[in-house]
Every structure is written in structure tokens, then in C-alpha cells.
Amino acid sequence: MGRKNIPLAVAFVLLVQMAAQAQPDRWQQRVKYNMDVNLDVNSNVIEGKQKITYTNNSPDTLNEVFIHLYWNAFQPNSGMDVRSRELGETVLGKNKDGSNKLDWDDRVKDRIAKLQPNEIGYCKVTSITLNGKKQETIPYETILKVNLSSPILPKSTVIFQTSFESQVPVQIRRSGRNSAQGIQFSITQWYPKIVEYDYTGWNANPYIAREFYGVWGDYDVNITLNKAYKIGASGVLQNAAEIGWGYDKEGSPLKNISNATRTWKFKAENVHDFAWAADTTYKHITRKAPNGPLLHFIYKQVDSVETAWQRNADTCAMAYPFMAQHFGAYPWPVYSFIQGGDGGMEYAMATLIKTQSLGTMLHEWMHSWYQQLMGTNESLYSWMDEGFTTYAETRTSQWLRKKPAFAQEGSYKSYYNLVASRREEPMTTHADHYNTNYAYSNDAYSKGAVFLAQLGYIISDSLLDKTLLEYYRLWKFKHPNPNDFVRLAEKVSGLELKWYPQDWINTTKTIDYKIDSLWSDGQKTNIRIKRLGDIAMPVDVQLWFKDSSQETHYVPLALMYGIKPAENAFPRTVYAPQPWTHREMVISTTRPLTDIITVEIDPSLRLADVDRKNNKLELKW
Ligand SMILES: [Zn+2]
User: Fold this and answer.
1) In the chain, what percentage of residues exceed pLDDT 90?
2) How far is the CA of 212 from the centre of ligand 1 (A)?
3) What spacing in Å lies between the alpha carbon of 368 and ligand 1's midpoint?
4) How far is CA 597 from the centre of its chain?
5) 369 C-alpha vs ligand 1 centroid, how far in Å?
6) Residue 129 forms beta bridges with which residues?
7) What is the rounded CA–CA span in Å between residue 91 and residue 102?
8) Residues 6 or more apart from 368 whose CB is under 8 A from it?
């Protein structure tokens, strides 16, 4: 907008509007990968060349860069191998047959220790130059440190060129060859990848078990391999007319060529990873999501599951409008569900999934929001990735089932089990540093989903929905951290919320309220509520009467400095805010004691009260 004289009143309105819509000002590094790779399907070796255009948008001068070499984890005595075997010795309890229940990741176990030289994975950078000059490198297993011959200055762009060689490991975890379902090549975390540098510095996390963090950028990837193979990948196929196989038009065959190999050219823009998979028996179908992306489904054709793939493809397309309405529009042109890997793992514009499970499909696709778009640092805040995705996936499947039920019930159950196990660790724990796989997954997926559902209890579900849409609008492509999300929820709700993550995220303290006593004082009926747990929360109490009327009683927490809007149409009594230090509160109704048939603390079940038995009282008169 050009310079103009703006009247003062108009200027004020403009300022207020700008403040309401301000985008958070957080710089991001930027990368562009041009890659030419060749997979030899007999030796399982990938030879590749990369041109990496790297822009330093930080205010810092960089004297080194770090590069991920993930496949070096698939070697005996690697960090992943040793850690997996150590966790596998932890006894979590007993199995039904009386044997010890061990904390294995069943996919990894001690399989890496047994790999032969032609079965291991590796990724070797055979040469790297910066602006044409050869660079010195120091390998640290899955991380390569590059000591730069000349620094990368703030706001400057440099070009790295690499040659690399990778061996596709036997499929152990996520990537690899010959998966249990018979997919030949699952090629993920496979290329030398620049580590993210952000406001905290370099994030050079070795590959131990958990997930990823990356630099947004553009990928131009040309993959050459035996012509009999069919590929599903991140991004849009650029030479669809040359390839055929449903990429040019639905149902078209793979084009016949005389060469022994064929080159597939993919482009994926504004993403932080690139994955692909190849198999000779793949089938390819597509669906168009209403007002959304073209969905590709690429899977091994097996008669017994063909209808399930077709049906679930329809359901994914059908689910999209709900997903977009509640969590924001999917911004890329395509999304590919590719059979491969060992469970479900999310990548840019694609997922590798083991089978056609609808729950897994919806979960991985929702990671496009809470992984690709937000780009949460999953080493540090795995719950913002897995927990938010679980929450969104569950909301979506509940909508698909069209059954009124508490969508997050499963996550609450897993969280309660985690508390009972006494293995809980604070959600601030680095994802790879949890003492058990069990605590990691219940924290990240379940306690993380409960974080959101319970935020709905604190600020109201309607303001939680609004917060999630604002989160999408303001924080996509910006690597938000927990404080960014909580601060946004504060702005949307007008409530102070810092106390919530302080206990829920940073500690393993728990919530427990109980109905202590009821008595009549001649004029009113009083109900005493006691807090047994260490976390103080706002308290909703619902009263049911004999004439089937109801009342809502709401005791806000003083630390909120405000109240949530009413969430139902029943008469609501709002009490003086309760200081967090106080463990007792009394609510009262003008109705006689003998009119009351039920008293319940939080009938919505969103309050993660670890002992719900003392939350409800049914009176028989
Ligand atoms: Zn997930």
C-alpha cells in the first residue's frame, strides 16, 4: 500500500484490525532440493546427486551446517539398535499367558543387531561442495557435521552440491525393502537432509526412534529405476503423460518403453520432506475430495481387501469437508495414501501405511495439519503432533459414524492407565529420552489429545474450535511451540491460561475432585466439593431434579481471570473465582435436598479426573 494521508479515526480502525490479524513474526530457513537419484533394484543401492539451495533467513552467521543421514541407524550397535534392546528389557507387567510384558517396539526389537552387511541401511555423502568448494565433514552416525570453509551470512543464499550413496535396509522401522505386506521399496528419510536451524539454534537430533523436524522448501526429485516398478510419492508427478498409470487419466496403464529403466519426475512445493515407495504390483486409484485435493491410493492389489480400499477411498474424500471446516483447508494439490512401511507414518503430501485401516488413513492424513503445516518440533513437543492429530482424527471419525458419543474417550482411558502405571513422565521430556515406549506413546498420543479436549472444558468447546482455526490461520508454516498455542488460546478466549500447561505439560500432577457432602440449611441445599488432586481446575457441577429439570453450577478458577461462556441452555450459577490454593468449595441451590436425584462434577467427561467414582452422587428418596 502506498503512502497516503489517512484521517486519524480511520488510522485507528486500521491499526486495530491489523493487530487482530497480525501474523506472528518468526523467521524460517528455506531450502530447495534438486535431486537426481537412481535405484538399482538388484543391489538395493541408491546413487544420488543433490543441488541444495539454502537460504539463511536467521539473524545469525552460520559456521557449520548439520545433515541428517537417517539410514545409518539401521546398523548393528547404532543408537537405534542399542536403545531398542535396552527398552526391550523393561518389564511393564504380565501378558495373559503369564509371561513378562516387555517394552519392545515390536517392529524393531533386536532385529537391527542381526542385520548382515547386505541388509543394513546406510547413507554416505561421498562429496559435498559449498558454492563449488569442497567441504570438510565429520560423521556422527545419523548426523553429519559440515565445517564450512566460509560462513553463511544472515539473509544470504548458498548452494551445496552433494553426491551420495544409500543402501536400502531390510525393512525394520518405517523405511526399507520387503515390508511384511510384501511392498518392495519404502523409501523414507532416505536422502541427506539439512537439519532445521531455528530460533533455538541447530536441532541436530540423532535418529533413535521418534519423529522428525525439518526445513520448509521445494523438492524437485527425479527417480530412475527398473521400468517394471510403479511409484507413489510426495508431490505431483511432472511427466504424467510419459508415465501413464493413472497419473494422466484414471485407469490408464503404465506406458510401454524400450529402455530398461524409467525416470519419474516429482515436484513437491512448500513442504519439509519427500518420501516415495515402489513396487511392481501396485494398483492406483484416485478420488477427488470436494473442494479439496486429488487423493491417490496406491496399494498392492489383493482381492480380499479390494472393496475395503475402494470404500475407504470414498470415505476419505467424504471426510474432507469436515476436516477443512474444523481444522482449515488442505493447501496442497494432492495427497497420496501409499501402502508401505510398517504401520502409518506421515510425510509431505503422502503417507506410508501398512494396510487399508480407515482409522490409520484419517490419522496420517490429519498429520498434514499437525506435522506438515505446523511443522512442530517432534523431538521436543511430540504431543503437539500426535496428540493434536489424534484429537482431530477422532473428531473426524466420530462425525463419520454420526453417533453422539464422547469422541476422546479412548484417549482419556489411555491417560488414566498411564497414571495408574506410575510410569508417566512430564510431556516436556524429549521424545527419544522417555524411559519407556509405553510412557512416550500414552503421553504423546493420549495425554496430548486430552490436553485439547480438556482445554475445551476450560474455555468451552466453541472457543476451542475457534482457537484451532486461528492456529491454522496464524501459525501454519511457522513451527509453533507450546507457548504459541496457549497464548493464542488466551487471545481467542480472553482467559489467562498459563497455569494449565504449567501443571499439565510440565509435571505429572493429576486432577481429582470429589463430592464431599450435601446438607440443607433450611433455605438452601449446599454441596461441598473437595479437591484431592494437585492440579486446580475450574469446576462444572450439574444437578438433576425429580421434575427432570437441571441446573449448571460453575466455579471458575481465579487464575483464569474470567469465565467461560455457558455451554448449555440450563440455568447457570457462576460462583466467586476459586483461588488455586483452596481445596474446598460449596455450591448451593434453592431447591430442597429431596428434589435432587443426581449431582455430577463435569458430566461432559472432559475434565481428566483420575478418580471419577467420587464425581457422581445418585440420591434415592
Ligand atoms: Zn501420528
Assistant:
1) 95
2) 11
3) 10
4) 43
5) 11
6) 134, 161
7) 5
8) 330, 332, 335, 346, 349
How far is CA 495 from each of CA 58, 61, 459, 463, rounded to the nearest angstrom?
Answer: 33, 40, 8, 11
Report whether pLDDT(4) > 80: no
Tell me the CA distances in angstroms from 290 to 322, 324, 436, one per residue in order. 10, 10, 42
Please state the length of the chain: 621
User: What is the residue-averaged pLDDT of the chain?
Assistant: 95
Give per-residue pLDDT as tens, 495-538.
999 999 999 999 999 999 999 999 999 999 999 999 999 999 99
Q: What is the pTM of this model?
A: 0.95
CA of 344 to the centre of ligand 1 (A): 7
CA of 366 to the centre of ligand 1 (A): 8
Of 44, 517, 577, 520, give the one whose Cα is nearest residue 278.
Answer: 44
For ligand 1, the distance from its centroid to the CA atom of residue 367, given in whole angstroms, is: 6
Centroid of ligand 1 to alpha carbon of 296 (angstroms): 20
The Cα 220–Cα 236 span in angstroms is 10
Interval between CA 251 and ligand 1 midpoint (Å): 31
Cell of 471: 492456529
Instruction: Find out whether 302 and 181 touch, Cβ atoms under 8 Å.
Output: no
Quote the ligand 1 centre to 460 CA distance (angstroms).
Answer: 26
Q: Ligand 1 centroid vs 90 CA: distance in angstroms?
A: 24
Q: Which of 342-346, 375-379, 401-405 has the lowest mean pLDDT?
A: 401-405
How far is the C-alpha of 62 from the C-alpha of 60, rounded, in Å?
6
Residue 25 is predicted with a pLDDT of 84
**448 C-alpha to ligand 1 centroid (Å):** 11
Please give the distance, rounded to the nearest whole angstrom, from the Cα atom of residue 396 to the centre of ligand 1: 15
Residue 489, C-beta contacts closer than 8 angstroms, at least 6 positions apart: 455, 459, 463, 464, 467, 497
Kindly give the distance from the C-alpha atom of residue 321 to the centroid of ligand 1, in angstroms, as a whole number: 21
Whether 12 has a pLDDT exceeding 60, the answer reads no
CA 361 / ligand 1 centre spacing (Å): 10
Q: Can you spell out the DSSP letters for 196-260? A: PEETTEE-----SSS------EEEEEEEEEETT-EEEESSEETTHHHHBTTSSSTTPPBPP-SSS
Determine what percent of the chain falls in helix, strand and coil, rounding each to the nearest 5. Answer: 30, 30, 40
User: How many whole angstroms from 375 Cα to the centroid of ligand 1?
Assistant: 13
